[in-house]
Give the backbone structure.
Amino acid sequence: MPFLVEVSQKIEEFCLVSESTMTKRILTMPFLVEVSQKIEEFCNLLFASSKQHVVARNSRISRDEACLQKLVDWFSSNDPFPKYEHLLSIASSIVAHESINCHIAYEIGVYCLSKTVGNNFDDVIF
């Protein structure tokens, strides 16, 4: 583990980029896409020469926004995590047997911890 910390520190020293500078660069990336598009419009030029830039065009962005709105509307009317009386598998919709208690693991842990406080290790019984 100390080796990884040393490597991480060496990389940070080599890059000489602070966390705030990196955050500024990452957060300004979407803004730069819009600036690039405006320059293209002003110069009446198209800088995209491959299919990888198709996803940044206005028609694709509009389609993505429409798809996102459909998804948000669907989740607004369909609760993905409804509350059931019994424990239910999300993947298979199989209802768990009554003996399964993983949904109360926190309460069981608190109970077990309360039994250990003030006792010797040999005296602990659950």
The helical segments are 2-15, 19-43, 58-77, 105-116. The chain has two domains: 2-55, 82-117. Residues 2-55 form one domain. Residues 10 and 109 are 42 Å apart (CA to CA).
